[in-house]
User: Which sequence fits this backbone?
């Protein structure tokens, strides 16, 4: 392996992505510009009941990231720092929407660093249009038959609606 200056920098952006939103995609595009390689990692959040399977979430991410060449999609059911170490990642990326995200993300960044000294977290601030946006809101709107097309990429609107259409029947 060469010196730091010539080594490829690989970042990992973990999240539930249940489902991926325009806010996530905006962070993915910006992070992909900052690093040689970006892994978008569908991860397990013990505090949340997922609506979509990890496979479905990975598939939706593939659809929305098809035009970003240095992005790889993966999933992992374990500690983020284990994936980070095993896959030679250099940085953890997180998006921050509002101050309300900060306390939880700050705690996670410290815990991850405690578990793995090398695991630094870099926070990207969400753009102003995404500050109010969350996967939970998208699911709530879709479950009540509302229009989600302003909140998620066009290529996955049908996948999300199909899930909730089935539930409403
Ligand atoms: O999109 P989310 O649900 O806010 O993402 C949270 C996530 C999945 C990134 C976080 O729960 C996580 O890192 N899960 C992997 C398991 C882990 O490493 N937990 C300890 C971190 S404190």
Assistant:
């Amino acid at each position: 392996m060469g010196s730091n200056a010539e080594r490829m920098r690989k970042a990992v952006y973990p999240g539930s992505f249940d489902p991926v939103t325009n806010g996530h995609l905006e962070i993915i595009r910006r992070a992909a510009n900052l690093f040689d390689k970006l892994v978008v990692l569908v991860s397990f959040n013990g505090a949340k009941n997922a609506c979509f399977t990890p496979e479905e979430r990975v598939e939706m991410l593939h659809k929305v990231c098809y035009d970003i060449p240095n992005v790889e999609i993966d999933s992992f059911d374990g500690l983020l720092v284990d994936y980070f170490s095993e896959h030679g990642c250099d940085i953890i990326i997180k998006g921050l929407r509002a101050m309300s995200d900060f306390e939880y993300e700050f705690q996670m960044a410290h815990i991850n660093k405690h578990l793995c000294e090398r695991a630094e977290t870099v926070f990207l601030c969400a753009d102003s249009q995404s500050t109010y946006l969350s996967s939970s809101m998208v699911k709530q709107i879709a479950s009540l038959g509302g229009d989600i097309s302003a909140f998620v990429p066009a290529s996955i609107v049908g996948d999300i609606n199909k899930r909730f259409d089935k539930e409403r029947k």
Q: What stands out?
A: Residues 99-115 form the longest helix (17 residues). The pocket of 4'-phosphopantetheine is lined by residues 14-16, 43-45, 48, 79-80, 108, 111-112 (CB under 6 Å).
